[in-house]
Design goal:
Blueprint lengths: L1 E5 L4 H9 L4 E6 L7 H9 L5 E6 L5 H10 L2 E7 H10 L6 E5 L8 E4 L8 E4 L4 H10 L3 E5 L12 H9 L4
Parallel strand pairs: 1-2, 1-8, 2-3, 3-4, 4-5, 5-6, 6-7, 7-8
Helix pairs in contact: 5-6
């Protein structure tokens, strides 16, 4: 099962993702909680392993995306289904993996759906609990995605739910 961490907020998130051998980590672009390029560079400088995905939000401009593609070793982009064709054409010269946020799996890219789906090339969004882990173990999806969360206070995060979840999946 492939693992994607969404909306990486800090080095702790990225290091955790690397520790559970996540395939990719996503950074929001064009939303209210974007990280500056320098922060993304700093985070990925300390975290080897996962592919870097730009999660393109509604306020992302082509110029901002191009800037990030020039500054960061991006492997792919995650986009809303409505923007997929346009952005794929816009960045056709780049060798990118495309992940499309959709409600149903599609065939010409990797899909990211909001519920459990067992289709090939489809990440399903999950809330990391031990109950969810049991469901995943019995259904064996192709991939899962997990949303990162803000620190409880500066530099302090409680990863106990994630730990229980990944232990139940026998990944930790």
């Amino acid at each position: 099962m492939k693992i994607k961490f969404n909306n990486i907020r800090d080095l702790s998130d990225a290091r955790y993702a690397a520790a559970v051998m996540a395939e990719c980590i996503g950074f929001a672009v064009g939303s209210d909680n974007d990280l500056p390029a320098s922060t993304i560079q700093e985070i990925i400088g300390w975290c080897a392993g996962p592919d870097i995905i730009l999660e393109i939000g509604p306020e992302a401009t082509v110029q901002k995306i191009e800037t990030l593609l020039n500054l960061i070793p991006v492997s792919g982009m995650e986009v809303e289904e409505t923007a997929f064709s346009t952005l794929k054409d816009q960045f056709a010269s780049q060798q990118l993996t495309w992940i499309v946020k959709t409600s149903n799996p599609i065939t010409d890219a990797i899909s990211h759906v909001p519920a459990l789906v067992v289709s090939e090339n489809t990440y399903c969004a999950v809330i990391p609990t031990t109950e969810t882990a049991e469901i995943l173990m019995s259904n064996e999806p192709w991939g899962i995605s997990i949303d990162c969360f803000e620190s409880v206070s500066t530099g302090i995060k409680d990863f106990s739910e994630w730990n229980d979840f990944f232990e139940a999946l026998e990944i930790l």
